Amino acid sequence: MCVMLGGRVAEILFFNRISTGAQDDLQKITQSAYAQVVRFGMSDKVGYVSFDMPQQGDMVFDKPYSEATAQLIDDEVRAIIKGAYDFTYQLLTSKKDLIEKVALHLLEREILSRDDMIELVGKRPFKEKTTYEEFVEGTGERFDFFQIIKLIFLFFFYLGSLEEDTTLPKGLQDWNRDRQKEPETKEKEKAKAAN
Which terminus of the chain, N or C, has less C-beta within 10 A? Predict the structure, then answer.
């Protein structure tokens, strides 16, 4: 949420005005905050409940909760977003000089590499993760032999490298074959199948 609020906060800090550019980000953080409160039970005030959220374009006639709960949900969502906004504002204010430095460099070059960022703002204060194992460390993700075999099988299957699988339903056996055959070839195949 803080990353998505970064553009809006930067507009306020550097230009002292806001534009419509952050509309999509604001929509995403609002949806995220509502999901935290309404679907995932992440609000102490609302409690450990989960309500189905309407999808965009759905007609909503009844809510599965009272007006008082609806008001509580709205208040919690606003508090979550305000907390993220305040944190982002504080962070960008404390790093304003570095943001200006990067922005001026971007105006000169248009593209910044990792090395440019290290030169401009310094190394990250934490060890960078460079391998898959480092990224998933602590997330509960693990290598499962059968999952790996399954992925390899799917990889070859979708590439069409496997032999024809006769256990597939007849209509699916040729799913990965070229569909743009010559009409003459199709006629020959039909005649062959009829024999």
Answer: C
